[in-house]
Amino acid sequence: MMHAATSLLKSSNISQPFPSPFQRRFCRWIADPSSAHLPPKHLQNYRISLPPLNCTASADSVQHRKMASNDGQGFRDPRIAGISSAIRVIPDFPKPGILFQDITTLLLDTKAFRDTVDLFVERYKDKNISVVAGIEARGFIFGPPIALAIGAKFVPMRKPKKLPGKVISEEYSLEYGKDVMEMHVGAVQPGERALVVDDLIATGGTLAAAIRLLERVGVHVVECACVIELPELKGRERLGERPLFVLVSSD
């Protein structure tokens, strides 16, 4: 599939400064992540790409992405375009053929960073949420300011042997093996209402594990919230009926 798409791109006009709709169509990442032969922990922020002709962070060359809600009825907010354009796409990192979704440029843009947090706060401030659970590691960036703004506590969901106290663990499957997520015992109480936060949803494995871990101790997961969604990996399907809210989608 990669060879065929590459041939089609070579036969098209690549001298234009920005990608044509034809090139963009064939520069979409391949939905099957196993073709990338990546270790599981590297799947979250990567996309398979053809040669990096069309890989640029400018707003003109990246197709505008829309606001997506948990019920699938997207709505547009004037802040979304600035957030989307502030996310840099780096080609061939960490290996050739990979497009990396880099949020560090979003963090450098104070307006885009503030708008990102504000959009989440506006959605959750009146939903009686007492716990914001952030998934390691980028969930630790967005989770704490959201938690402070809505009056909730922040609970880190960490990789094995990172938390010093007694933990409860949840094992989950990845494309090439298994991983484990941990949370401190006593960090949450039965009956609390939680929001699960991460920067990006791809295959949905870590979000699903976080939900199971919280529900095992009697917490009600109100929603999952991510800045970016890579819908071709169908991560929403792994969440079952739990709602997901994202700001920008790479559709």
UniProtKB/TrEMBL annotation:
Keywords on record: Glycosyltransferase, Transferase
Organism: Melia azedarach (Chinaberry tree)
Tree of life domain: Eukaryota
Name of the protein this chain belongs to: Adenine phosphoribosyltransferase
